[in-house]
């Protein structure tokens, strides 16, 4: 929440808010950011703290990082800082290492013109055109991100009415919303995330085009969308972001298979809500979260439906059905969002352990307790039980007790409904085919 009402800016001209009229102090800014700001200033360049760092400080939120905008061009930045590395194709960015920090430093961007390279949807493909401070301000996405902290006199420069919108708790795009979304469709995702982070409402004019333009996300490289999904869901606003994405038609573009599944079965929707609420709670408590578990939950509904179809409707054996379902669902999802193998492989292992929970024979149960993904898979079983998947509540209860008793050699008695999964294997007759075990806790095809 904004800690003090700031002066209403004159939108037609830049408004300078002096140090005594705003709450930002150098004590709130990281040592690395101050080092870069002063380094550029002492070298004769303009240098400003800008974007989310200024916005969050004004809103009373501790920033995760600080970005810097400067009149220095990338090669000039590199001459000032030996620890500088230049990255980026569409727009070149300087990463400057200052101690343990890596600061993102960008040159003032120039205005958008017809000379900018675009694709057929209007997305800008090349943007290495430099400009002035005021031109850079109007290239920013949201008004609250176009606030500049000047290291020379500690004032804040507001060119687009960002202070006014902070006071009104409103998230508003700079310029024509449809044009700005077409320039970079990821702005639609940022609108959801930033509004929930600040507890703001998206301005109606900025919200209106989102559903119409949601399909533009298909033009974004899948690797970039992977990073955006982590920003949306591995934070304390994960559930609110999920609901916002669905409200504005964006989730269906990111996870089309999941959207179809949760529209057909309420318990699948409930599973995602429980999983994201749990993620948000872990973030608030500074507990570890992993993309493997997150994507395991997000893709479980279409995966489980497909595995059920392959096994019980097409007659595949369980292992083949599970592997084929995982291959198909992951291949389809990779077309929208690139999921690195370091996350997709443990995600598949978490899925693969789920049917093994149904085998309650003491020997099998003890071996499963030593599985490297047991804890994550068990936590996932608890989510399924909370969401109301058939048979999962009894399984989750049994495995909760088993973790305390199996290590000492004791076996908790199975509930009546699971009794036939806890008996020892009968010796097979010579030459007889192995018996196919009846799986419990499978997908209930009746949609609720």
Summarize the structure.
The protein has 448 residues and is an alpha+beta fold.
What features would you highlight for this structure?
eight-stranded mixed sheet; cca-adding enzyme, domain 2; two-stranded parallel sheet; elongated; 10 strands; 448 residues; Beta Polymerase, domain 2
Fold and architecture overview:
With 448 residues, the protein is α+β, with helices and mostly antiparallel strands. It has two domains: 15-182, 2-Layer Sandwich (Beta Polymerase, domain 2), CATH 3.30.460; 221-423 and 439-443, cca-adding enzyme, domain 2, CATH 1.10.3090.10. 47% of the residues lie in helices and 9% in strands. The protein is built from 19 helices and ten strands. It has helices at 31-42, 52-58, 74-80, 133-137, 162-168, 177-183, 186-198, 204-213, 222-233, 238-247, 251-254, 256-264, 266-284, 291-313, 318-334, 341-353, 362-369, 374-387, 392-405, and strands at 15-17, 47-50, 67-70, 84-87, 93-98, 101-107, 147-150, 156-158, 170-171, 201-202. An eight-stranded mixed sheet has the order 1-8-7-2-3-6-5-4. The chain has a two-stranded parallel ribbon with strand order 9-10. Strand 7 (147-150) and strand 8 (156-158) form a beta hairpin. Helix 7 crosses helix 10 and helix 14 packs across helix 15. The two termini are 40 Å apart. The model is unreliable at 1-12, 425-442 and 444-448 (pLDDT under 50).
């Amino acid at each position: 929440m904004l800690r003090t009402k700031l002066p209403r800016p004159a939108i037609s001209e830049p408004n300078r808010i002096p140090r005594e009229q705003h709450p930002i102090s150098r004590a709130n800014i990281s040592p690395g950011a101050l080092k870069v700001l002063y380094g550029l200033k002492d070298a004769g360049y303009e240098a400003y703290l800008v974007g989310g760092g200024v916005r969050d400080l004004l809103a009373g939120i501790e920033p995760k990082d600080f970005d810097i905008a400067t009149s220095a061009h990338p090669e000039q930045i590199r001459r000032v800082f030996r620890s500088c590395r230049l990255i980026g194709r569409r727009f070149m960015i300087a990463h400057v290492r200052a101690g343990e920090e890596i600061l993102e430093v960008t040159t003032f961007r120039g205005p958008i013109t017809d000379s900018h390279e675009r694709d057929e949807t209007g997305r800008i493909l090349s943007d290495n055109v430099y400009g002035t401070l005021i031109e850079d301000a109007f290239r920013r996405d949201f008004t609250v991100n176009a606030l500049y902290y000047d290291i020379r006199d500690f004032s804040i420069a507001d060119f687009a009415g960002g202070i006014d919108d902070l006071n009104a708790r409103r998230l508003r795009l700079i310029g024509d919303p449809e044009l700005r979304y077409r320039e970079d469709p990821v702005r639609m995702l940022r609108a959801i995330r930033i509004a929930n982070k600040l507890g703001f409402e998206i301005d109606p004019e900025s919200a209106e085009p989102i559903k119409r333009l949601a399909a533009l996300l298909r033009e974004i490289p899948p690797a970039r969308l992977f990073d955006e999904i982590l920003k949306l869901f591995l934070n304390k606003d994960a559930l609110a972001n999920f609901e916002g994405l669905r409200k504005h038609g964006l989730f269906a573009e990111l996870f089309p298979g999941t959207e179809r599944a949760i529209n057909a079965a309420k318990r699948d929707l409930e599973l995602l809500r429980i999983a994201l609420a749990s993620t948000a709670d872990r973030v608030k408590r500074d507990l570890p979260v992993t993309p493997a578990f997150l994507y395991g939950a997000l893709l479980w509904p279409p995966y489980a439906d497909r595995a059920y179809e392959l096994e019980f409707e097409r007659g595949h054996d369980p292992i083949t059905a599970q592997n084929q379902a995982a291959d198909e669902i992951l291949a389809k999802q990779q077309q929208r969002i690139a999921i690195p193998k370091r996350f997709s492989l443990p995600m598949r292992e978490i899925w693969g352990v789920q049917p093994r929970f149904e085998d309650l024979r003491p020997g099998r149960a003890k071996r499963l307790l030593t599985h490297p993904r047991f804890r994550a898979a068990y936590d996932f079983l608890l989510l399924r039980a909370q969401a109301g998947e058939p048979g999962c509540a009894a399984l989750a209860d049994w495995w909760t007790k088993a973790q305390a008793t199996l290590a000492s050699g004791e076996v908790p008695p199975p509930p009546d409904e699971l009794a036939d999964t806890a008996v020892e294997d009968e010796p097979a007759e010579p030459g007889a085919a192995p018996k196919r075990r009846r799986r419990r806790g499978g997908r209930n095809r009746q949609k609720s």
